[in-house]
Backbone:
């Protein structure tokens, strides 16, 4: 395929995400070079399970260890990908899990932010949809 030919279908980025709600607010992160908030997570490494990928990304981004055996799938979000070529979508597999350690930004994360439902416009589209879902379930007032 030459560099100027278009793919036949839109690209889909699969991402794994840790969903952590405390006191009615969702943990979000601001990565370097981004203008909207995301939830801790990222892409799977070859051979990783969902839990392994979420646990690795959470440790790399917010310095916590997710406890094995406490993972629960919260949602699967399919949304337009932020800061990607037009037509690119993200399929975000969202998991909750208990953690050990203090939440501290690390590596490419500039800061952690606790988002309320009212602040959802600060988030990337997939995270905004997650906030809407958590609000509808009564987890984010």
Residues:
């Amino acid at each position: 395929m030459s560099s100027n030919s278009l793919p036949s279908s839109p690209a889909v980025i699969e991402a794994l995400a840790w969903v952590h709600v405390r006191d009615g607010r969702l943990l979000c992160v601001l990565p370097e070079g981004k203008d909207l908030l995301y939830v801790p997570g990222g892409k799977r490494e070859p051979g990783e399970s969902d839990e392994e990928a979420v646990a690795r990304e959470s440790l790399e981004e917010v310095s916590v260890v997710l406890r094995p055996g406490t993972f629960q799938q919260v949602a699967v979000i399919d949304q337009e990908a932020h800061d990607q070529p037009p037509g690119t979508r993200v399929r975000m597999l969202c998991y909750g899990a208990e953690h050990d350690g203090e939440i501290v930004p690390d590596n490419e994360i500039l800061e952690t932010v606790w988002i309320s439902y009212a602040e959802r416009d600060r988030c990337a589209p997939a995270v905004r949809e997650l906030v809407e879902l958590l609000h509808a379930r009564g987890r984010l007032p």
Remarks:
- Residues 23-114 form a domain with the Nucleoside Triphosphate Pyrophosphohydrolase fold (CATH 3.90.79.10).
